From TrEMBL:
Gene3D superfamilies: N-terminal domain of ligase-like (3.40.50.12780). One of its GO terms (biological process) is fatty acid metabolic process. GO terms for molecular function: medium-chain fatty acid-CoA ligase activity. Residues 48-401 form the AMP-dependent synthetase/ligase domain. Belongs to the ATP-dependent AMP-binding enzyme family. This is AMP-binding protein. It comes from the Bacteria. It holds the Pfam family AMP-binding_C_3. It comes from Oryzicola mucosus. Signal peptide: none annotated.
Length: 570
């Protein structure tokens, strides 16, 4: 009889295998091998279109409910659009097509048409182009790999200001010819995504077809539940980010599933999102803190909706580095109450085609990054008192694209990509060793005394101390004598009359237990407005980009240093 335990249902027998580098040092790999057979993602689409042509691949909101596209329709539409791009616009293999088209059926057809023709699909972030693209940020994105064609939604201002082609016009055009696809190779570039800018200016990252195949083959090998039945996913993540626009949609195509594109989470959209989940019964939920928090706000008080959401749910997945202790508590309690799914996490980067690590077993606590993907190796390198996570393997991009030039990725002497993130190796309660997040090295700074402040662990500790009053906290004090903080209140606590008093008590308790200059908060205040995504202060995952926020609000933190704001209770 097959084992129906949670671990057997979700996880293959993943173990960390320790090896020595020739020049010294230790690396770890996964005991599960990367499959030798790693077909191209477009060939996976062709296969599913032949075997299940009428299965929905993608649905999206429309004026009449939802618009749907089957696997058979997707393949035919992508091939037709590929011929339009060739015949009407002169594109050849290797030419670049830049896109401002948001997640949905039109964006999918363009993405897959580029794969069919061997064109490089550039996923442009929308914010720099919202007023037409006549700004330094937009121009730097277009210069990374100059496109032969820019495609935008119908009516977008870029149609006039940048001579973009409307996606509606492209899809309405006719083309002649057969449906044969351009020959391709694993090293061919398939796409360009831009880094989120969390720790610096966005950089273009070329993604090869082989990177996509190795990523999806490794994920399926590590998480066999994805292959047991076609996954069903309700997803709102933007497609200009590698998480949503590469990993999620190709995970669906690789495994023959269905994605239902949803509106971004918010107080006004959650009712419709819950109704959609009740209708389609997802098997997988992939979230970031913003969406998970809003989802739980509804499901914790609506038992019928919670039952419908979890009826076929196998797993909730989130990036392990990005969830606070209070949100984890709520998520774990919701799982325990429902008893039908597991919580899994992972870790990745644009430079790694999205994924580097995944959970080897149901999550025990936040911060777990998991084990390296099959076929990849990880090392921990000493960096000023902490250890940086570095990775090597077939998922790593060939270079950066900056100003039309290829720029090498930061790699060490052994060829490992330097992520810029600190990590540790720790044992779980069940004895399984996993890598765990230990903060971003680029966010660390020094006080005027020379004492180093480890920003990531400090913010995490303060958030846990202030839960559930705060959604995020920004800490400042570089080259100053003391630390100050700005607290972003949670939605539930924002209107609390005694919020300041409660925060003063919580931070005072923190100071009593963490009295060193690198952890003690001297002054604090409460943010009156959320971080501004348009100004780069909020990442696509809904998390505050500390470095950008500090730069944009320098005077606010200078005022706190000068004595404004509030003092923690002594």
């Amino acid at each position: 009889m097959p084992d129906s335990s949670p671990k057997a249902r979700f996880i293959a027998d993943s173990r960390l295998v320790e090896e020595s580098l020739p020049g010294g040092g230790v690396v770890w790999r996964n005991s599960i091998a990367l499959p030798d057979q790693r077909p191209d993602i477009f060939d996976r689409l062709v296969g599913w279109a032949a075997t299940v042509p009428d299965r929905p691949l993608l649905t999206e909101p429309s004026a009449n409910g939802r618009r749907s596209l089957t696997y058979g329709e997707t393949l035919a539409g992508a091939r037709k659009l590929r011929r339009v791009l060739e015949q009407a616009h002169g594109l050849c293999k290797g030419d670049a097509v830049a896109s401002l088209v948001p997640a949905g059926i039109d964006a999918l057809l363009l993405k897959l048409a580029c794969l069919a023709g061997g064109f490089v699909h550039i996923a442009l972030p929308p914010f720099p182009f919202r007023d037409g693209g006549d700004n330094e940020a937009a121009q730097s994105l277009l210069e990374a790999l100059p496109p032969k064609l820019l495609v935008a939604p119908q009516g977008h201002v870029a149609v006039d200001t940048l001579s973009a082609i409307s996606i509606a016009d492209l899809l309405a055009a006719n083309a002649e010819g057969l449906d044969g696809d351009i020959p391709h190779a694993p090293h061919d570039w398939a796409a360009v995504f831009f880094t989120s800018g969390s720790t610096g200016a966005p950089k273009g990252v070329p993604i090869t077809r082989g990177m996509i195949s190795s990523n999806q083959a490794a994920i399926a090998a590590l998480w066999p539940f994805l292959t047991e039945a076609p996954p069903v996913l309700v997803d709102w993540l933007p497609w200009h980010h590698v998480f949503g626009g590469l990993d999620n949609i190709f995970k669906i195509i690789w495994n023959g599933g269905t994605m239902h594109v949803d509106a971004a989470p918010g107080p006004k959209t959650m009712a419709a999102s819950i109704a959609l989940m009740q209708e389609v019964e997802p098997t997988l939920h992939i979230g970031v803190p913003l969406g998970l928090r809003l989802l739980l706000d509804r499901l914790e008080t609506d038992g019928e909706a919670a039952q419908a959401f979890t009826k076929k749910l196998r797993a909730i997945f989130f990036a392990g580095a990005g969830i606070d202790a209070e949100l984890w508590r709520r998520l774990a309690e919701f799982r325990d109450a429902q008893g039908t799914f597991e919580i899994l996490s992972g870790y990745g980067a644009t430079e790694a085609a999205s994924t580097i690590c995944l959970s080897p077993a149901p999550l025990e606590r936040p911060g777990e990054l998991g084990h390296p993907l099959p076929g990849h190796r990880i090392r921990l390198a000493e960096m000023d008192g902490r250890t940086e996570l570095r990775v090597a393997g077939p998922n790593i991009a060939p270079c950066y694209l900056i100003g039309g030039k290829r720029v090498a990725l930061p790699v060490d002497e052994d060829g490992f990509y330097r992520t810029g993130d600190a990590a540790i190796l720790r044992s779980r309660a069940d004895g399984i060793p996993v890598f765990a997040f230990d903060g971003r090295l680029a966010e660390d700074f020094k006080l005027s005394s020379g004492v180093k402040v480890r920003t990531g662990p400090l913010r995490a500790g303060l958030l846990a101390q202030c839960a559930p009053l705060a959604d995020d906290i920004v800490v400042a004090g570089e080259n100053c004598e003391r630390l100050v903080a700005l607290v972003f209140p949670s939605r539930q606590s924002a209107d609390t009359v005694d919020l300041l008093e409660k925060l003063a008590e919580r931070i005072g308790e923190w100071n009593a237990a963490n009295s060193s200059s690198s952890t003690r908060i001297a002054r604090f205040d409460v943010a009156s407005e959320p971080a501004d995504r348009a100004q780069g202060e909020l990442s696509d995952k809904g998390q505050i980009v500390q470095s950008r926020y500090l730069r944009n609000h320098q005077r606010r933190f200078e005022a706190l240093q000068a004595g404004e704001g509030h003092a923690p209770t002594r």
